[in-house]
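Appendix B. One record, verbatim.
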Amino acid sequence: MSEDRDVLRLAERLAREAGELQRERFATAIEIRTKSSSVDLVTDVDHACEALIVDALSAERPDDAILAEEGRGRDRPDAPWRWIIDPLDGTTNYAHGYPRFCVSIGVEREGSRAVGVVYDPLLDELFSAVRGEGATLNGRPLRVSEVDELGQSLLATGFAYDVRRNPRDNVNHFIAFLKSSRALRRDGSAALDLAYVAAGRFDGFWELRLHAWDVAAGLLLVEEAGGRTSDLAGAAPPPSGAECLASNGRIHDAMLEILRG
């Protein structure tokens, strides 16, 4: 377990360093490009943050595998440790000067989630978790909410980048939860949404067609804060992020009932 703590400290340090870069460049002139669609953006800040993290990992832990959103690093199936990095989750927000974005770093050990860090640089909030040791926010223990009725819940979701052309667009679920929960939020950062479930700020979160780097840290945060995670059928959430449901556990079955409908 001592190595888990070493990995956590490194992940926290790198998240803070990348977050400092984001804070310095926020609301300044940045280079913005598109990737898979006109709504799938990447900026020079994404690339700079990823380079910062990957270069440090390559120097300090050269035997570890790295899966990073913008393609740096080397993802190797034989490596016992695997870093899964979203250098800037919430790029569209960042590009528009909307203050909802973060750094997300999840680490797997022998294929299982072991360490998770999500850092919001504008609020200076560092969400951290180690498997079996609980979750914290700036060093203080986190716990999911105690809301046990869906009608009293605050939920969050998002929409995939192919929402304009994919018929499985999550709009039907959005409408169903809009009519059955207290309120919904759609803030454009899945990693922060999951961290907020862990912190008890949201009672539940669901989304389709995310990626491993969107959920690797956040799912562990929720689990270590006492919450429940699954796919939309109630089975274990896929590491790929293809389907994701996370909640305080108390409203999980009620959310599953709507998602299966």
